[in-house]
Write a structure and sequence with these properties.
The protein is mainly alpha-helical. About 55% of the residues lie in helices and about 0% in strands. It has a domain of about 30 residues. The chain has three helices and no strands.
Length: about 70
């Protein structure tokens, strides 16, 4: 690994949003990320309970966001 001096500008991967910048310029990396497959059983009862819990929390968040604060 190479050492970077404090005066060198950060690389694209080290800057905020650097992954998005690097990804936009490299179509090969986009293809690799799209190929990732997530195996979740959407018909499983625990998956349904988790989805309902997330939805409930999101709705509460949205209601609190609309309410005028003190």
């Amino acid at each position: 690994m190479s050492e970077r001096s404090p005066h060198d500008p950060p690389s694209a991967a080290e800057t905020p949003g650097g992954q998005q910048q690097a990804k936009a310029g490299d179509p090969k990396k986009e293809e690799e990320e799209e190929e990732e497959e997530i195996d979740i059983d959407l018909s499983a009862p625990e998956t349904e309970r988790a989805a309902l819990a997330v939805q409930e929390k999101f709705r509460k968040f949205q209601r609190r966001k609309k309410e005028p604060g003190p």
